[in-house]
Amino acid sequence: MKLTLMTLLMVVVVVAPPLIAQENANSSGTGLGRWVRVEATVKAPVAEVWRVFTTSEGAEEFFAQKANIRLAIGGPYEIQFDPNNEQSGTKGLKILSYAPGEMISFQWNAPTEYPEVRNGGTWVVVQMRPDGANRTHVTVTHYGWKEGLEWDQAYAHFVRGWSDLISRLERRFTDGPIDWDKQRMMYKGANDEMKDSPATKIALAHAEAWTHHDWNTTRELLAPNVHALVTTTLPNRDTAEFTGIDKYMELKRKAAQLIEPGSLQVLSAIGDERNALTLSTFKIAMGPGGTMVTMVRACLYLIDENKKIIDERDQFFVLSK
Q1: Are residues 29 and 178 in the same domain?
Q2: Which range of residues forms the domain containing residue 198?
Q3: How are beta strands 309-318 and 222-232 bridged, if at all?
Q4: Are 118 and 111 in contact (CB under 8 A)?
Q5: What is the pLDDT of residue 27?
Q6: Same structural domain for residues 167 and 198?
Q7: Residues of the chain above pLDDT 70, percent
Q8: Beta strands in the chain (DSSP E)
Q9: Per residue in 133-157, is it b (16+ CB within 10 Å) or e — as a string?
């Protein structure tokens, strides 16, 4: 077992199983602050799962198109998501500890648009254990999260990113190594491509307008008989449903007064001629005493023949700390 004294002490802390198993990306109050965790049981023996997480060749079968991994304490754990851009991954980051066939931990960073998080010292722990014949249960946990707007935005990014990774891992062992020519990765600018669709452009322009209190543009993008449905998982908040541009504008103005202008962050967007779906975050004064918290918002839009929003389905929750 290759563990130095310092890394052994760290592993004893970070690898201890949580009190409550979490199947989805989530946060915890374990004393380590919040973390992002994903889990899956894959159709492969532990030895094969260990191989794909601890060798360059294995990682290139599911993690990213280019990898440089040398299994040693302090050895490189470099994942390059865009093979043409060294800044798209973990260049220069190292393996912190490992126990063969059981666990590996390594340094992690963030995309360049999150400079504070990129240099913030987060780390990842991958654990694996047998779960029946030729099956392995894998847990990936991203630790080291701090507070702040950029940290919240990066956290939301990795909720999606690690979910994508665990999905690719499962597909690696059902369909074979990932075909990178067909795989859409987050770095490929999927958002930019999809923003070009007519419905998505309208949806994003609308969100940008009302979160910046540009009420003329907000109104111009709405059909006179616009219908809206707003739901949430927050306790003690009812579903809201209304029709008509005046009612819509009245309620949107009230909501926007709580939002920090300029805090809108679009995480993903997809659409076609008439339909669009967006996922975004922004800061809103809904915390204790009116403090700012991060709201996560998924919104489905239907655009009419006049290129106006005729239907909006809004779902949201407040990101826990």
Answers
A1: yes
A2: 191-318
A3: parallel
A4: yes
A5: 44
A6: no
A7: 85
A8: 36-42, 66-69, 77-80, 95-99, 103-107, 123-130, 136-143, 222-232, 240-243, 265-271, 275-285, 292-303, 309-318
A9: eeebbbbbbbbbbbeebbbbbbbbb
Looking at the predicted structure, is the pLDDT value of residue 6 above 60? no
Residue 312 binned pLDDT confidence (cut-offs 50, 70, 90) = very high
User: Helix axis angle, 46-54 relative to 149-175, nearest 10°?
Assistant: 130
What is the reported pLDDT for 235?
A: 85
CATH code assigned at 169: 3.30.530.20
Asked whether residue 297 carries a pLDDT value surpassing 60, the answer given is: yes
Give yes or no: residues 126 and 195 share one domain: no
The position carrying tokens 């076609």 is 272
Residue at a domain's end among 185, 211, 244: 185
Given 134, 167, 185, the domain boundary residue is 185
Q: Between residues 188 and 108, which one has the greater pLDDT?
A: 108
Number of domains in the chain: 2
Asked whether residue 33 falls in the same domain as residue 154, the answer is yes
**Residue among 140, 134, 143, 172 at smallest CA distance from 39:** 140
- Answer yes or no: do 149 and 13 share one domain: yes
